[in-house]
Amino acid sequence: MNRSAKTLALSISLISGLASTQSLLAAETLLGFDAAGSAAQRALEADFDSRIDAREMEAWLRDLSFEPHHVGSPKGYANAQRLAELFTSWGYATEIAEYEILFPTPKTRELELVSPGSFTASLTEEALDEDPSTSRTQDLLPPYNAFSRDGEVEAELVFVNYGMPADYEVLERHGISVEGKIAIAKYGRSWRGIKPKLAGEKGAIGTLIYSDPLDDGYGQGETYPQGPFKHESAVQRGSVMDMPTYPGDVLTPGIGATPDAVRLDRADAPTITEIPVLPISHKDAMPLLAAMGGDVVPAEWRGGLPITYHMGPGPARVRLKLEFNWTMVTAYNVIARLEGSEFPDEWVIRGNHHDGWNHGAADPISGLVALMAEAKAVGELAQAGNAPARTLIYAAWDAEEPGLIGSTEWVEHHAAELSEHAVAYLNTDGNSRGFINIGGSHTLEKLMGGVTADVIDPQTGVSVDARRRAMLTLEGSNARIKNEAKNRAQLRISPLGSGSDYTPFLQHLGIASINIAFGGEAQDGSYHTLYDTYEHYLKFRDPGLYYGVALAQVAGRATLRIANAQRLPFEFAGLTDNIALYLSEIEALTDALRSGTEDTNSLIDAGTYDLALDPTKNLGAPSSNQPVPYFNFARLHNALTRLDAAATAYEGKVDQPASAEVNRLLYSSERLLTRGHGLAGRPWFKHHLYAPGFYTGYGVKTLPGVRESIEQLQFDAVDEQIVIAAQMIEELAARVEDLSR
Amino acid sequence: MNRSAKTLALSISLISGLASTQSLLAAETLLGFDAAGSAAQRALEADFDSRIDAREMEAWLRDLSFEPHHVGSPKGYANAQRLAELFTSWGYATEIAEYEILFPTPKTRELELVSPGSFTASLTEEALDEDPSTSRTQDLLPPYNAFSRDGEVEAELVFVNYGMPADYEVLERHGISVEGKIAIAKYGRSWRGIKPKLAGEKGAIGTLIYSDPLDDGYGQGETYPQGPFKHESAVQRGSVMDMPTYPGDVLTPGIGATPDAVRLDRADAPTITEIPVLPISHKDAMPLLAAMGGDVVPAEWRGGLPITYHMGPGPARVRLKLEFNWTMVTAYNVIARLEGSEFPDEWVIRGNHHDGWNHGAADPISGLVALMAEAKAVGELAQAGNAPARTLIYAAWDAEEPGLIGSTEWVEHHAAELSEHAVAYLNTDGNSRGFINIGGSHTLEKLMGGVTADVIDPQTGVSVDARRRAMLTLEGSNARIKNEAKNRAQLRISPLGSGSDYTPFLQHLGIASINIAFGGEAQDGSYHTLYDTYEHYLKFRDPGLYYGVALAQVAGRATLRIANAQRLPFEFAGLTDNIALYLSEIEALTDALRSGTEDTNSLIDAGTYDLALDPTKNLGAPSSNQPVPYFNFARLHNALTRLDAAATAYEGKVDQPASAEVNRLLYSSERLLTRGHGLAGRPWFKHHLYAPGFYTGYGVKTLPGVRESIEQLQFDAVDEQIVIAAQMIEELAARVEDLSR
Among A225, A538, A569, B163, which residue's CB has the most CB atoms within a 10 Å radius? Predict the structure, then answer.
């Protein structure tokens, strides 16, 4: 029996087994609904599902990704207009919220190998006959990193691997500094903006970032157009603004970029890079890397080019010249509102950006068309008399790509109202075939567990929750994850760092947020390249848009359950369990850091490195580090114990209808996880449970005040951060105690 | 301070600290010597050291590796003559022991890509201006695998990674069979002969083996002549005879290949491959691999060529034609004997082969010149009145490369005398800069610990034992190894599998053996290629032959201590500890196999694979396996307990002079680890503690009867093998009890 036949047989057997499971599920009440409410809600969701039309979504996808549509482009404006018309036609009160933002575009991009030999980088992506979209490039922004500063530099290259802190420790052991050099880094592992930030901190005068074929090119599989992976000329564009400091318009931190906003001088904007940075293809990187010498890189640094990779410095010497048009453009957020029938002052916000770096079929239109299908269905349901109980706001954000700008400005602009009224924010962005991935506020974990148990995976016929559990059972990276995949009542959702429009909602205002995407079976290298087209997407990412439909089903259910719940579907036991996990991780991290430091220091003192290392090579011993003290985690444990008791007590309340005041206390509980002073050194980030890593970018740091002070060896700050985190948890515990009375 | 300055300063401080350590050591008695004997032996060793001359060794290296000198070549014969003259001139009774052996050489080698496209492999290594040796190719054997059978085959290619059992399990999960196909495998991981053996068992009709640049070419570092790593045209030659069944002449298993020996018909020789096999360069492999399709390989299978690696089958279709001259040639073993002054009937044998695949500077001449320096020094000492107490036999073996033939035939020919007289065999082969590596019989572990503590590392000034401990402290692959590196009285020596001339001594006759080499800081890709030349060796492997001198110091000390000891320096506590480790490994392996089988079977039964795997891909669930029963390891534990007690009791005897009878009981104790019936399916291999793996080749399997029956899922055979192993240990325990009385 071949795989297809097996799958079919399996699907049939599973689907026939499914009927009973589904009736069982249907018999259960939904979180936040009583029995009658659950039945009505399930009927509504079935009606909703029937209105999701893959062919219509595919038509929208083709239309919206027909041409490049970055912020400031004619097509970007046309898309916003088109979206506004559609939302209006579906019954929404729609406005286009405009912000005046700084958006740099390339004026001069020059990169050449000066010596040895000579080579001028093409910096151009090739049009392909097989993909007509790649020839529609009239408004195309060529490959660049937005918010690189202007500059012309010439220096030797140093290869810095992925350009992360640990990579510089390796370079240091080889006696290599980037001081006065140009760093060349691989894309990947960290968010791209970290690479020039760290290189600049280490003294580099410029940064190149290239896509190694081992990571997303021929090393992974067939390249475009034969397969999905990165064409040799493809370049990942992307913002390098210092988003871990603050996202959004670089000139208006913390306030909406309205025409009359007080703006920083560009020279004072702290989130523009310190050094020029340019992304290049591996075709352009190859002659530069091949001309390098110096120490051979460690095995784990090697890429897929047919050369020996060296660290440098030099002898390859390059000249990089970058100049940008530092122009003000208008970002057009499309905001569509459907007034709640019962609780119009409680807002559920559902967003996805509409701007793309190029044609942007996957990113962001594949997610946007799900949102559109949801909004259209909800509009129809409302017109048929089933308006949501709470107010729904559908948002199509502009200028996400250069730095979450459209959403951030809107959130900053409406901060007061949002703090008052916003119940939750549900985000999507790109989507593709595979497994459901949910990140977000753990108070919504149980809700999402219920939603994902009710949506059927289009390939296997089991729920998307069951399919994810199967995958984690096989591939989970540790025993805990494998065990939880089989046994935990709900799968954990991931804590959110950054990387899409939930950031201002969650991390600046403390609005409970959820981010939803399918993926994992259609990895490729098209991200932010010319090749992220309708043709590529339909051929390789989600043929038939089956997972687009599934996304609409998941996000639509989550939105509608929050909108209609008699008691808002927040709960705290899962949150407590997750915080306990994070605390245990931090304690384990601290212990490992302490024993690792002790071991390394004693090996240095014993001269073991000097004896063991090859004396003909440059690799030396690591530097010794300060000993890691013990920290007082007791207050955090005590706070968690209190929260746990309160959360358990609250379990008895979850199926009881709630007053508006109780619901307000529920949805505003996420606000208690923020502090007005924000995180150390980056006050814009108010949330103290979730934050993007200061040196990882998108990657999340949980309990970031505590964790980052330990990771960055700022041991004097740790106990203070523990107190801040404990107070926060105590305040939340007090709130949950109130809710449990 | 740069690394060189640091190293110098360190060496000085360590050497100054060393004086006291050395005097401390000198005050200790040597294993097997009383105080007076120890002092005399140390004085002898100091005299010995003073006679080792790096410049003379370098001259021999240049001379012996000047031209290709494989068995049957003019230069091979000339080298044997030259060696015999030298040994004679140093005072040895020297003979050239000749054997008539089957040695196939290439007549026809054709490889072409038939479709898609066309390509004819060059199958030729390029001469380099930078290395004059590479132009001296008159008697060069072109790249081939000795003991491939003749054949002409045409079929699609299947990429089998390293061609090991686990690789075929992956192929099976992809629904791919090599039945009727030609397998293309990477060199590495397993001994090369396993690749065609396993491919043939799986139904392949031919095998290609190529060197991937990720493993020993540009992926590792600069390629020859700029650096040491594999030139793009380089091909690793090598034997593919089924040595795990028996090594040596394929026509005369178990008996010496004398002119009148009874020989098998070639058609009946079981160690010639079932299918034709050819080694190729990555330059020749590239067009073949690039023409392949089918599933993309898993990440861990990827190599360093700039292509997407596919499993096939096909569409690449190749034709392979191989014909060999199946000629009889004479192998010339040079046997040099120095009669013992006190115990002439106790023989200590020290060997290194002299034949090479090409110029063979590293393999084998770098080891041979150390043996020559030792023999010359020992001859001088004897002439000065310090003849060894026991008889020394220095052997320079021929025909090691095609399958340990020279040594095996000599051992088989002289089996009766050797069983009676041989105390120990000490082997070397190639050598290079780095760390001391010792493998062998664990009864000699303590001896070797003492030797390596007394030889100074030329780069750091500490003992070669201390330097290895430092390396293992840093890089040991697990906590036990790291801990032992710091704390174990002697470092463990490695159990021996196969791969050099110790095999017939140890595994066929049960003669305690030791294999010695330095290495680890000069890895390269020259092995068995045209580029294993004097020029390459002196530039990249051991400039100045400092480690050649250190090798002579280690091997010379070990030889002389065995030759002169008042009580032979065998001991049993270390042996017991090592056997206990192997038993614990086998128990852990069994438990892991059992729980892994249970887990996999339950995941299959639960349909988890079918849900988790991508239904659009061919990767399916693994096959379920039979459950792993529990085995009765008790008898082995009980035998070990008895051996442990006896070994502890024997500790009190080690510094007492011994009678000839006691010494005979000591050196013949290794014989007790053999069984006349040999291992299941391969009776030539008599040793039941150490054997080369039947499916790994050179890699050792300890307690092989037990271990391999478990690994190969032959569970019915396990308990019987446990009994055999336990009886063997009980017999040894009884012997040690006798010795302890």
Answer: B163
Residues A175 and A311 in one domain: yes
Domain encompassing residue A519: 3-95+329-564
Could you tell me the pLDDT band of residue B5, with boundaries at 50, 70 and 90?
very low
Count of domains forming chain B: 3
Is omega for the bond preceding B657 within 30 degrees of 0, making it cis? no
Q: How far is A363 from chain B (nearest CA, A)?
A: 23
C-alpha angle B398/B404/B410, rounded to 5°? Answer: 65
Query: The CATH number of the domain where A457 resides is what?
Result: 3.40.630.10
On the question of pLDDT at A16 being above 50, the answer is no
Do B609 and A4 lie within an 8 Å CB cutoff? no
Residue B707 lies in a domain: yes
Chain B residues near residue A544 by CB distance under 8 angstroms: none
Residues A163 and A83 in one domain: no
Q: How many CA atoms lie within 13 A of A628 on its CB side?
A: 23
Distance from CA of A523 to the nearest CA of B (A): 12
Interchain proximity B304–A306, CB inside 8 Å = yes
> B560's torsion region: left (phi>0), alpha (psi -120 to 50) or beta?
alpha
Q: What is the pLDDT of residue A6?
A: 41
Assign A698 a pLDDT band (cuts: 50, 70, 90).
confident
* Record: contact A603-B473, CB cut-off 8 A: yes
pLDDT at residue A444 greater than cutoff 70 = yes
E strands along B216-356, which residues? 238-239, 277-280, 317-338, 343-353
pLDDT for the residue B27: 55
pLDDT score of A28 = 82
Find, among A156, A150, A152, A162, the residue nearest to A182 by Cα. Answer: A156
Report chain A residues whose CB lies below 8 A from the CB of B175: 2-3
Cα(A412)–Cα(B564) distance, integer angstroms? 89
Contact B612 A474 (CB under 8 A): yes
Contact assessment for residue B407 and residue B351, using Cβ atoms and an 8 Å cutoff = yes
Cβ B611–A521 below 8 Å, yes or no? no
Burial of A681 (0-12, 13-18, 19+ CB in 10 A): exposed
Closest alpha carbon within chain A to B232: A306
Asked whether residue B277 is domain-assigned, the answer is no
Strands B277-280 and B151-159: unpaired
Q: Is the pLDDT of residue B497 over 90?
A: yes
Whether B350 and B366 map to the same domain: the answer is yes
Residue B134 lies in a domain: no
Chain A residues in contact with B603 (beta carbon < 8 A): 473-474
Is B611 close to A7, i.e. CB distance below 8 A? no
Shared domain for B297 and B351, answered yes or no, is: no
**Mutating which of A214, A220, A232, A308 best tests the B interface, going by the most B Cβ atoms within 10 A?**
A308
Examine the fold and report which residue of B545, B564, B583 is the final residue of a domain before the chain moves on: B564
The beta-carbon neighbor of A470 closest among B222, B470, B608 is B608
pLDDT score of A3: 41
CB-based contact A612 B305, cutoff 8 Å: no
- The answer, yes or no, to whether residue B541 has pLDDT greater than 70, is yes
Boundary-marking domain end, from A292, A324, A356 = A324
User: How far apart (Å, rounded) are the C-alpha atoms in residues A633 and A202?
Assistant: 33
Chain A residues within an 8 Å CB radius of B7: 610, 615
In a domain, B421, yes or no: yes
Same domain, yes or no: A352 and A408? yes
- CB A612 to CB B473 under 8 A? yes
The answer to whether A663 touches A346, Cβ cutoff 8 Å, is yes
Task: Note the ipTM here.
Answer: 0.93
B471 & B591 share domain: no
Give residue A163's pLDDT band: very low, low, confident or very high (50, 70, 90): very high
Does the structure show a pLDDT above 90 at B481? yes
Rounded average pLDDT over B696-722: 93
A126 and A245 within one domain: yes
A283 and A189 within one domain: yes
